[in-house]
Amino acid sequence: MNKKIVCPILQTIAMISDKWKVLILYHLRDGKKRFSEIRRSLQGVTQRVLTHQLRALEEDGLVSRHVYPEVPPRVEYALTELGTTLIPLLDKFEEWAREHADELMKTNRSICTEAIAETAEETIAV
């Protein structure tokens, strides 16, 4: 993290706020994974974005990176001790999302419906 944030809550949110970071942490909770395993488990992430997100998590001390001296090089990522402390929070987050899935989907649908209607109106106006 480049900017110094004084509030611990804001600092934590900044560390994990990117879309892929939470999912990376979630997938690493089961143990070490290679880059390709992480990428396969995250549909839609590009290699560049995943690399950037893993580096940021490593800089923040949530993920460790181990390079094995092999040809071709093998790299594994794992949660650090600090990263592991986020697992109960991720579990609660998942529990909340499952409990409120219907409400969340309804909200997302109405947002999408409004966006589609606005786009249609703009198209008709042209």
Write a structural description.
With 126 residues, this protein is mainly alpha-helical. It folds into 2 domains: 1-84, Winged helix-like DNA-binding domain superfamily/Winged helix DNA-binding domain (Arc Repressor Mutant, subunit A), CATH 1.10.10.10; 86-126. Helices cover 64% and strands 11% of the residues. It contains 7 helices and 3 strands; from the N terminus they run ααβααββααα. Strands 1-3-2 form a 3-stranded antiparallel β-sheet. The longest helix has 25 residues, at 101-125. The protein is globular, with a radius of gyration of 19 Å. The model is unreliable at 122-126 (pLDDT under 50).
CATH level-1 class of the largest domain: Mainly Alpha
Q: Nearest-angstrom radius of gyration?
A: 19 Å
Main sheet: strands, sense, barrel: 3 strands, antiparallel
Number of helices: 7
**Model regions low in confidence, pLDDT < 50 over at least 5 residues:** 122-126
Taken as a percent bin, the fraction of beta residues is 5-15%
Q: For the residues shown, what is the average pLDDT? A: 82
Q: Structural class of the secondary elements?
A: mainly alpha
Shape field: globular
Tally of structural domains: 2
User: Share of helix among residues?
Assistant: 55-70%
**Assigned CATH superfamily of the largest domain:** Winged helix-like DNA-binding domain superfamily/Winged helix DNA-binding domain
Order of the strands making up the biggest sheet: 1-3-2
CATH architecture of the largest domain: Orthogonal Bundle
Order of helices and strands: HHEHHEEHHH
Q: Looking at CATH, which topology of the largest domain would you report?
A: Arc Repressor Mutant, subunit A
Q: Quaternary state, please?
A: single chain
Q: Based on DSSP secondary structure assignment, what is the total number of beta strands?
A: 3
Cα(first) to Cα(last) distance is 45 Å
